[in-house]
Amino acid sequence: MSNNAPQRWLKVVTGAFQYSLPALKLVWQTDRRLLLWLGFCTLLAGLLPAGIAYTGKILVDAVVQAMNSGAAADQQQALRYVLLEGVLVMLQLAAQKGINACQALLRVQLGHQVNVIILEKALQMSLPQFEDAEFYDRLTRARREASTRPLSLINRLFSFFQNSLSLLTYCGLLLAFSPWAVAILALAALPAFIAETRFSGDAFRLFRWRAPEAREQNYLEMLIAREDYTKEVQLYQLGPVFLKRYQDIFQKVFGEDRALTKKRNFWGFVLGALSTLALYGAYFWTVMAALAKRLSLGEMTMYLAVFRQGQMAFASLLNSMGGMYEDNLYLSTLYEFLEQPVPVYGGSVHTGSQPGDGIRFEQVSFCYPGASKPALEDFSLHIQPGYKLALVGENGSGKTTLIKLLTRLYEPSSGRILLDGTELKDWDIEVLRRRVGVIFQDFVRYQMQVGENIGAGDAEAFHDQQRWERAGEKGMVTSFLDRLPEGYHTQLGRWFKEGQELSGGQWQRIALARAFMREQADIVILDEPTAAMDPEAEAQIFDRFREITRNQIAIVISHRFSTVRMADQIVVLEQGHILEQGSHDELLAQDGTYARLFQIQAQGYQ
Ligand code: ADP
Fold first, then answer.
1. Are strands 359-366 and 376-383 parallel, antiparallel or unpaired?
2. Centroid of ligand 1 to alpha carbon of 403 (angstroms)
3. Could you tell me which residues come within 8 angstroms of residue 81 by beta carbon, excluding any fewer than 6 positions away?
4. Residue (of 106, 92, 90, 109) closest to 36 by Cα position
5. Among 268, 336, 461, 465, which one has the highest count of C-beta atoms within 10 angstroms of its own C-beta?
């Protein structure tokens, strides 16, 4: 095996207890009464076996004495011991069942608790972190195993104490026979421990390596089995391709597992056989001692039982320790995730230094992590309150990036963005977020009710039907609402019972209504809000758009010039730079890129 074995064992022994305290704390917070009961039952279950073995000894000795003397009193004494042993065994059974019940009750609660902790943490993370593959792997790992591991660790920790107690009391009994007997008991269990520690580290390393594969498998499962992907997967006949890839990943992973399982069990057998040999040596010795009359029949019975059970207790003690080591390794992934730094939004400003100044971009540049070229470079712009701004530019020119910077999903690499004279990073993030209503192109289609889909625009009014109706009216949801069986209470999407599916344009109206839900926001940002709508709906919405957003800054990204032309100011972006800016008429007069693009689209409609 390995030449640095002592170090490895030391690592296992210390590693086995590393997260025991945090795990205990977690259980204590989850349900302290259950934890106390578990402790009590474990104590009983640890002490009783030695008591039972000792009662067995005095019982046999009493029977032998009664047989020799024939006295009625001796016979009664022997029968009383039978009764005593029966009571102890019954107690043992009760303690074991108590442990099982506590574990079962804890399992559900603890699993839930850990999941909540993970989700709460995920809520605090920032968008760039979610886009980082390594972060995502950590999250996957934490979610996959960590919810079952704390309980497993606790179970093993208690089993460790139970077996330690049993062993201590067994050793007390055995010492009367010979200290060597205690030594044999310990030696016989060691091989199992070696096998356990040798392989639990390997299993864990495999698990860690596999986070990316597991993620890919999850993704493929989603592609094949989710309703929003089925359409394309079926029509392009991609199913078999994806399934094949899914199976290939399994084969690779399984191959590694198989090798480890074989190795683990082979060594388990070899080392287990050594234990058994040692144990039967001890049996042999005990029987010889009894034959030589150095032990009474009762003592021999007790020692045999103690040897057998003691060896088992020792083996399961070491097993618990190996298992605890493994649990700790898995738990380390949970704590690694929980210890990830959370982005701190340090700002505390509630009103800007120049109220009414609007938004200013000052030489803002931004480069995505790992990207070689900036997505936005040296961008400067002033947007006054109430202004309507349209952003135009080909795909990848930096429009969405601009919005992400303005909403503080990202921080600029250089330059400043100011709102009412104060830099965004100095604003209290909650106040800032309340002032902005934004609908991205890939807005979320919540598999919830129509009203809730609109209400999502303002968490405080999530269930407020009057507000849904007001926003729904502005977003023109009302025009198709009467076709939905339960109006605002119609379930949307296909995931849940009686869900209705909407067309792309209808979903966009709901998204628009969601943006209008944010009544107290003075900045409304719409990323391609009407791309899927028919021209008539679009025209109707934008006829009223200026009126609806009268006091608000509106920033609209659009490829439709019918939408764009109503803006006070139009900014044409190209590769992260401002190419042209001005009103529709000014830009047409400039006869540049904007004018050219406008002509192309206008011709298309002629
Ligand atoms: P637009 O909205 O104008 O289509 P974007 O702002 O989305 O363009 O993208 C600008 C540039 O930044 C593109 O070159 C794109 O490849 C890159 N980009 C966009 N999002 C990311 C991201 N999350 N990570 C890395 N690069 C990105």
1. antiparallel
2. 11
3. 55, 58, 59, 62
4. 106
5. 461
Atom of ligand 1 nearest to the CA of 395: 4
What would the pLDDT profile of 437-471 be if each residue is shown by its tens digit?
A: 888 888 888 989 999 999 998 888 899 999 999 99
Reported as a single tens digit per residue, the pLDDT across 279-328 is 788 889 899 999 999 889 899 989 888 888 887 887 788 778 777 877 88
Nearest Cα residue to atom 25 of ligand 1: 368
Q: What pTM was estimated for this model as a whole?
A: 0.72
- All domains of the chain in start order, with CATH: 20-338 (1.20.1560.10), 442-521 (no CATH)
Nearest CA to ligand 1 atom 17: 375
Alpha-carbon distance of 300 to 291, in angstroms, equals 10
Strands, E assignment, 343-449: 359-366, 376-383, 388-393, 414-419, 422-423, 436-439
Going by C-beta distance under 8 Å and a sequence separation of 6 or more, which residues neighbour residue 241? none
Q: Which atom of ligand 1 has the smallest separation from the CA of 393? A: 3
Q: Which tokens go with 246?
A: 């899914």
Rounded to the nearest angstrom, the gap between the alpha carbon of residue 63 and the centroid of all alpha carbons in its chain is: 61
Please name the residue whose Cα sits nearest to atom 20 of ligand 1: 401
Please report where in the chains the tokens 């971009």 appear, as a residue: 361
pLDDT digits (tens, 9 = 90+) for 253-283: 888 888 888 887 888 788 878 878 887 888 8
- Ligand 1 atom with the smallest distance to the CA of 368 is 25
Task: State the distance from the centre of ligand 1 to the C-alpha of 554, rounded, in angstroms.
Answer: 22
